[in-house]
Amino acid sequence: MDMTNNIPNSCKVVVIGGGVAGCSTAYHLAKFGWKDTVLLERDVLTSGTTWHAAGLIGQLGSSATITRLRNYSLNLYKQLEEETGLSTGLKQNGSLTVATTSDRLEELKRQVTFAQRFEIEAKEVNKEEIKQIYPLINTDDIVGGVFITRDGQADPVGVANVLAKAAIQNGAKIIEKCPVKKILTKNNKIVGVETNFGKIECEFVVLATGMWSRQIAKEIDVSIPLYPDEHFYILSEPIKEIERSLPVLRDYNNCLYLKEDAGKLLVGIFEPNAKPAFINNYKVPDDFSFGELPEDFDHFEPYLMNAMNRIPSLEKSGIRKFFNGPESFTPDTNYLLGETPEVKNL
After folding, report:
1. For residue 280, with 0-12 CB atoms within 10 Å meaning exposed, 13-18 middle and 19 or more buried, which class applies?
2. Which of 95, 153, 246, 296 is the most buried (most CB within 10 A)?
C-alpha cells in the first residue's frame, strides 16, 4: 500500500476508513471513472471491526434492493478473485435456517417465495432433510426450515484486501497509518480533510469509519445514528465428525448462527437484549485496533446452552476461544447511505 510520504495536496474524493465498506467504496469510485480517489486509514486495513466479522454471505435481504445488492456482492467477489489473484475465502456451501415455531416457519416460507422472484435457489425442507443437510443437528423441537443452495461464507479480511487491490489497480490510492484529524468545511460544504501529515483539499468526503462515524461527524455538527454493541461468539475445539462442506446454520428462535471454521464450529449470537459497548463515556477510543472487549460469560451462557441443545457435539468439544468485539448498528439496522442533510458533499 502507499505510505504516508505519498499524501497528495488535493484529490476529487477522500474515503475515510479502510474496512470492507471503505475499500469497496474506493474500488467502485475508481472503477466508475473517479481515479482521483484517496482512501485514508488511521491504522491498517480491516483493523476496526472488519477483521472479526463472521463473514456470512446471504443472498436474501429484507427488501428487493438489499437482495439485489447482496447478489451483486457475491458475484463481484468471485470476479475480483480472478482479477486480483487474491482469495476471498468464499465457500458456497449454502445456508440452512430452521424454525421451532409455526410462525417462524410461515416467515421462512415467505422467504422462499421472495427468493423465486430473484431466481435464487431456495427450498423448504422438513426434519428428515434438515438432518441430511446438517448431520450434527438435533431436530427434536424443529418444525421445518429453508435451505438456500448458493449462500455461503467468506473471509472478511480477504474480501477487504481483494477490494483494496482492485481499487489500486483501477487507479485509487490507499494510505495507511494516516489518521484524519478533522473534516474541513466551508459554508456547510466539504473543502478537504486535515491529517496528521498535512491537509488534502477535496470536493467530496465519504465517511466509512464504522463505529467511529458518529463521533467524527459530531465534530462538524452532523448526526449519524450508529452505535456499537458488544457482539459475542465462541470458536469450538476441533470436532472430528464435522464436514468442511457444512452450510451456515441460522436458528432465529434461539438467536444463533453457526458456521464451520477449519474443522471447528463458530457460534455467534444476535440477541434482543444486546449490550451497548464503551458505556463508560460512549466514545470509541481512537486507538482501538484489532481490539477485543472483556468477556461476559453470564450474558452469553443462556445462548450457549441453546447452541449445545441444537448441536449436541458442542457439549463434548470444549471452547477454544471466547470472543467479544464491538459491532455497530443503526436503530433500524439498515445502511446509512447518501449525502448528509447537514453538510454538502459528505
Report:
1. exposed
2. 95
The pLDDT of residue 2 is 52
What is the C-alpha to C-alpha distance for residues 136 and 132, in angstroms, rounded to an integer?
Answer: 9
Residues contacting residue 197 through CB under 8 Å, at least 6 positions apart: 4, 7, 178
**pLDDT for the residue 62:** 86
Q: What is each CA distance from 17 to 40, 58, 168, 209, 329, in whole angstroms?
A: 6, 24, 15, 5, 17
Please give the Cα distance from 344 to 203 (Å, whole number): 10
CB-based contact 45:56 (threshold 8 Å): no
Give the amino acid at 282: Y
- What would the grid cell of residue 53 be? 466479522
Q: How far apart are CA 54 and CA 51, in angstroms?
A: 9
Q: Give how many domains the chain has, as a whole number.
A: 2
Q: How far apart are the first and last CA of the chain?
A: 25
Predicted pLDDT of residue 72 = 95
Q: Is 252 a domain residue?
A: yes
Angle at 267 between CA 249 and CA 335, to 5 degrees: 75
The domain in which residue 50 lies consists of 4-55+155-218
DSSP element (H, E) containing 131 = helix 127-133
Q: Are residues 169 and 23 in the same domain?
A: yes
In a domain, residue 266? The reply is yes
Q: Which CATH number is 239's domain given?
A: 3.30.9.10
Residues 159, 12 share a domain: yes
Model pLDDT, residue 3: 44
Low-confidence ranges of the chain (pLDDT < 50): 3-4
How is residue 288 annotated by DSSP? -
| 132 domain residue, yes or no | no
